[in-house]
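Quick start: read one record
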Amino acid sequence: MFIKYRKWARKLLFFGIFNYLKLILMPHTGEHKNPMKIFGMEPSTVCWLGYSVWPNVYLYRKKQKEAVIQGIHEYLCQFFGSSINYTILSEKKTKELPPILKGVSSSDIWIPDGKTQEELESYFNDYPIQEYLKLSGKLNSRFIQNSVVYRSEYLKIDNCGNYGEEMLLNFKGRHLIFVTTNFRDSTIIQFLNKWKTNQGFQNVNTLFINLHLQNDNMILFDKMLDNLKINRNTDVRHLKPSEDALLVKWREMTEEMTLESRDYLIRDGDGQGATVMTFPMFFLFVVWNSTENTHIMGSKNE
């Protein structure tokens, strides 16, 4: 199920064998009953078909949105069971957080400007543990330093062109992706050096930073990442042209990603290796698993 949440409380759901089903919550003066108890709703719930808007569109009164959203979600969970991946998406610029629903495996949430740190922490403390969480908005100084958000296993951040240092330095999970978020070279250097010397980020398996505008081929920022500066101030190693390239694999949601690289970093103490790639428009850091790149592990003590 894919729910799209916006100012007009429009709902868009994708599930199972259906292509889509669209639910719109908005004020209406007419009295339309629900004799068929659509989605398990009581007959007294105002409901009508919006043929002029889109096929398979059902409209409800806006003031009923909380009850309608909860009711439809419970109905679909009972109908399809746990075999369906349910996702919540709150649309950009909405002023409200989406309702908290059980059995949701992933969420893509716009953080409204008017919410305080305390309100956001209370909301996410009540939020169910999920496989994937994406947050968008102006996110600097929006969360407390030890926020539950930073303990998400898989976190994706869209900071709308603002700097992402705060989110990176507070992250305690395993997979972190930034899109449309700016970074200073010094922050990347700090991250790599702390990981190498066992001073931080020991749980991080993947870090990806993309300076492109999302869903576009444009570059958002005038200042790009400086590969030479980052490598000069870290212990990133480089394979010789005669040496085999490094192969690293990781999973992004349900998709397995594969990459070859010639740059890497070896952590002090345990000799754990990680691939490092820095380009003007993006940065990638991926920790190897125990079976990857064993042909260079002998260099870990050099």
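The chain has a mean pLDDT of 77.
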